[in-house]
Specification:
Two copies of one chain form a homodimer. Chain A is an alpha/beta fold. The first copy, chain A, has 16 helices and 21 strands. Chain A has helices at residues 4-7, 24-34, 76-89, 107-120, 164-177, 195-203, 221-234, 246-256, 263-273, 281-290, 308-320, 330-339, 358-370, 392-401, 415-426, 435-454, and strands at residues 11-15, 40-44, 50-51, 54-55, 69-72, 93-96, 123-125, 131-134, 139-140, 154-161, 181-186, 210-215, 237-241, 276-278, 300-305, 324-325, 345-346, 350-351, 376-380, 407-410, 431-432. In chain A, strand 12, helix 7 and strand 13 form a beta-alpha-beta unit.
Chain lengths: 461, 461
């Protein structure tokens, strides 16, 4: 199945476009207009002449030019008819937003859609989905208004989610923190295009370096195993599996008609395929972004801090997550002792003390970047102190942009801190609120780096 | 030891007050002036006449009136002298911000301070600490400027932290989310006043309903065991212990001179005393706030959602954290079926669907509040949807304020979502980003409620 018409269409039809700002068809059409999509966009609605000053057509068959991609947001009983018209028009990609199919027991209705899609060779996403985003082509069929759901900037992480709600949460988090995405796909009931097709497409997508995924179920286990193995050897795949308990499976079944399947089986498959499994939505986001860092050579981590307590907690979690506290080289220790005032603690963590300024951070980063005993660097910055301001971000970003070793940041606090975190994150320094999550993510990056480089997995944890 | 002079002083001296905005003594003095402290505040500095238009005294001995509480922020070698003067003046409470004592090996210097404090019966906090806050008395000796470290509003949670950095992070988070605190104490090297004294004081503090604590070490294990048991039976104590690994212990030793001790011993002590142990700083914050909810009668939880996927993840984690998904009563199911449109899924989770409005949430909450099969309620709100706006908060807050059952919220997203979360949180609805953390906290609340009510602990997990 060729999915290009979905992600790189030259022309799009929004079937069910509407005047009413509360209708999904309105929001989607508006997003295309305001989101900067370069191709043609045709609103389709037999009852309306114009929407947002654009001529509206009764059916796709009435549109003069060709259409690559149709977004369908009409009531469930009308979907089969408009999808057939899409087929006749030669539309090769369709996103069916409409719900009311297999997930509510309407198996017949869903089967009908699948048959139409097969007959006309349509790559169909959905039904019962939130839409998709391609930040390069500026395709955006997500039916949530931009003021409520921020759109992330262009970036290297693709995110596929069976659940629209989950999907919207994660991209909203990404946008807020300044993390970019390449593509987002909410694929709902997965009636035609499913997780396997998407993984295969993303494997070869030059704009995607990391794949994040939320699964409720996998339909064809054997195919998934084969494809996932292949994809995860090429690009890191970070995944969360929902519906792991009896209650969760029941809930998943009534949500996307998914038979969730045994948690153990999934975890085993993930391990076998080298998919990195996470347990929470925020982890899905927090673990994905670290995989844009250069691969560490080993598990010896250097910690820089201006707050002792957070250093202690980070050390605890680094060790519990299977990382090792690096023994700094004699040269590093000597240089640090010469440069820093006596109350700076030249250990690991390297505690620059509460009066640390930008210069101390700069020198500390330089030392650890040059120290062959250090494979990765965790920089803890408490922005609350009197001696630091936003300019400390410059030295961290400069070190990070050398792309010699993974550099991540931990910073905990309120509004002032948050602003600085967004600066770091937007510049490609993965920034965390929790030492637990930061070291967990770094540990997985280290594990994955060993997997791919040496061809064998030696999990540290 | 009487700690009242620390938290409810009528007069305060800031020793080491300064003109220089980068000096701690300046920030602290300014915080007292701008923070609304009602009593007298005297700046002390032999080299200056006036600071911020207030007469400055060479020594506390020169101040005409009496002084209850002294904040000491002079260089380490000068601390003993000014502390002795405090003793001679009759000051009964002192917070020594200055570092450079036992934590850097200056055992002799610290011993000297302890002897002076004992001689003059001074309740001494520190040295090497961040200061303290009492939101009722408006005492604020925290040396971080308010624009960098927001101050939380008045509330019911007291927070004590051996590490200043950790302390500042947690109160900053609290302020940002609108969670109130009663007191904050950073107690540093714990040379005189230690965690036991503070716990005892907070047990009897009428303004404190929940105690959150960050420990690096406990000096007198036997006394701690006795006091903690007593306190935790009266008020919930949520604690995190840092320095659990070999590396972490080493880091703690060079930070607050703490001998961190075995992780297992601490965990056993926490279990015995019914202290609720958490593993991360964000959990310390997230778990503490749920303890202001009414005690649940059992572990049967009802989940309301407008996003299926987040409902599934929450169900998974509720079950994995030892909670049970409630079986709604026949009456609840009947009423829900009559009221809600057919695509609303009348299960648990009660999936109100992506087009749910305020009215659906209101009715759903009413049903679960009245259903005797439901002990606690998790409300998932995805604010991104077209049919919801900030007014849905009103119905959740109204239900919560009946204080009949614990009600918590889960909401994940960017800026728009965040604003709404702060509204909920400020009105006393504990609001979470992560289903994992939300259900973990609810599970601990349920466990603690059983502990205290039935006198026996039956951990669900």
């Amino acid at each position: 199945m060729d999915l290009r018409c979905l992600f790189e269409p030259k022309s799009v039809a929004v079937i069910g476009a509407s005047h009413d700002p509360k209708k999904l068809g309105h929001v989607i059409f508006k997003n295309f207009i305001e989101g900067g999509f370069k191709g043609d966009v045709y609103p389709i609605n037999p009852n309306i002449d114009k929407i947002l000053n654009r001529k509206c057509y009764p059916s796709v068959l009435d549109v003069p030019g060709s259409i690559d991609h149709a977004v369908i947001a009409v009531p469930a009983p009308a979907v089969a008819k408009v999808l057939t018209e899409c087929g006749e028009k030669g539309v090769k990609g369709a996103v069916v937003i409409t719900s009311g199919f297999a997930e509510v027991g309407n198996i017949k209705g869903e089967k009908e859609l699948v048959e139409i899609a097969k007959k006309y060779d349509i790559a169909l996403i959905g039904p019962n989905c939130l839409g998709l985003i391609d930040t390069k082509a500026k395709v955006d069929s997500v039916f949530l208004p931009m003021y409520k759901l921020q759109r992330p900037k262009k970036g290297d992480i693709a995110f596929i989610a069976q659940s629209g709600a989950v999907g919207s949460c994660v991209i909203d988090l990404a946008a807020e923190m300044g993390v970019g995405i390449s593509k987002f796909v909410s694929y709902g009931n997965a009636s035609v295009v499913n997780e396997c097709d998407l993984l295969e497409y993303l494997r070869d997508d030059p704009n995607t370096r990391v794949i994040a995924a939320y699964f409720e179920m996998v339909k064809d286990g054997k195919r998934f195993l084969r494809i996932a193995k292949d994809v995860a050897q090429n690009k890191p795949v970070i995944a969360i599996k929902a519906g792991k308990t009896a209650g969760g499976m029941k809930a998943a079944a009534s949500h996307t008609a998914a038979m969730a399947g045994s948690a153990d089986v999934y975890s085993a498959v993930f391990r076998q395929t080298r998919i990195i499994e996470v347990e929470s939505l925020t982890d899905l986001f927090d673990y994905s972004k670290i995989f844009l860092q250069p691969a560490p050579k080993g598990r010896r981590v250097g910690i820089i801090t201006n707050g002792g307590g957070v250093g202690v907690l980070t050390t605890d979690w680094a060790e519990r997550h299977g990382l090792q506290l690096a023994n700094f080289s004699d040269e590093t220790k000597k240089k640090a002792r010469e440069k820093f005032p006596p109350h700076v603690n030249i250990g690991n963590p390297l505690d620059l003390a509460g009066d640390a300024d930008k210069e101390r951070y700069e020198y500390a980063l330089e030392l650890l970047m040059d120290d062959d005993n250090v494979d990765s660097i965790i920089t803890i910055i408490l922005f609350q102190t009197v001696s630091l301001d936003a300019s400390v971000n410059d030295v961290i970003i400069a070190a990070s942009q050398k792309r010699k070793k993974p550099i991540i940041a931990i910073s905990i606090g309120g509004e002032y801190t948050k602003k600085n975190k967004v600066i770091l994150e937007s510049a490609g320094v993965p920034t965390y609120t929790s030492p637990y999550v930061a070291t967990g993510a770094l540990s997985k990056l280290t594990w994955y780096a060993r997997c791919t480089k040496e061809g064998v997995c030696i999990p540290f944890i």
